[in-house]
Write the structure tokens for this entry.
Amino acid sequence: TITRSAVIDKLQNQLSGQNVGLAFAYCHYKKRDTQTLANLIASLVQQLVQCLSTIPDQVRTLYTQHNSKNTRPSGEEFSRILQLLVARFSHVYVVVDALDECNPETRSKFIKKLQESPASLHLLCTSRDLGDLQEAFSEASRLDIRASDADITRYLEAQIWQVPKLVKFCTKAGDLQSSIIDKLVEKASGMFLLAELHLESLKTKTDVRSLRKALDILPKERDEVYKEALKRIQGQSEDESKLAMRILSWITHATQPLKVEEIQHAIAVMDFDPGDTTIDEEGLTDEAELITVCGGIAIIDQNSRVIRLVHYTAEEYFERRRGEIFPTAQVDILCA
């Protein structure tokens, strides 16, 4: 997503003042209900209109028709306006990030609408490697994006020296750092996420020997990595494990993203004693503790203050198994 933002920023700077349109969409699995076909196309329409010096008559007419009835244009109406707008520019650039996180039916229709646009529309989409998207873009240019082994190596070198225990182990056993890095780079398969989660698992080891054994049995499949991470979380002290599972349960079952303050209050309510009616500051879990007990599975977006799972694949893992992992979650949330 950061890479796509850099692309958009560069396009905005390079194309400023030219007869060129630019629009973008960031898909998110938590917004599937609101990121409908009509809303996605409407967003592109709005952005392209903002690229023009005057609002086209067709847009004004559509607005007047629906404003008087207090209704909203349909996806087809927005699509027709989109085609008209694209024709007004010499070139139009559309960037869609994380298309795989969009509802499958919606993304199929969205892609079709964009591909029906005039040839002056240039489309850049990013996604995981899914079958339906491979088929939809079978004739398009493709670039696989993965972290280089050198980049992951540099990342791991920096991270190891931020963990006093690992620094001590690597100082004691001269070849240990290179063994850790070589094995983690191999298991990461070009993903920083896997390298980070594997390193998180090594932080729990209490001696060099157990760490070396752990290196030999590191899983490579993502689901197995998440499974091992969950085992580590549940293997903490009773209070830490209980807190972590509550956090992960709230994040997994929430219908919309939760802010740090919201999850702090939700957990505080779950710890109410009979007769408690108010929450005080002393009953709120420290922000850093929320993340620490989750062992790298949850993170906080410092801009939005939203606490979320570390990756879309983590969300998929917990959604598929939430009945098994959180068997009493519905009752617990209801009682809170």
Remarks:
- The mean pLDDT is 89.
- Residues 36 and 106 are 6 Å apart (CA to CA).
- The chain has 17 helices and six strands.
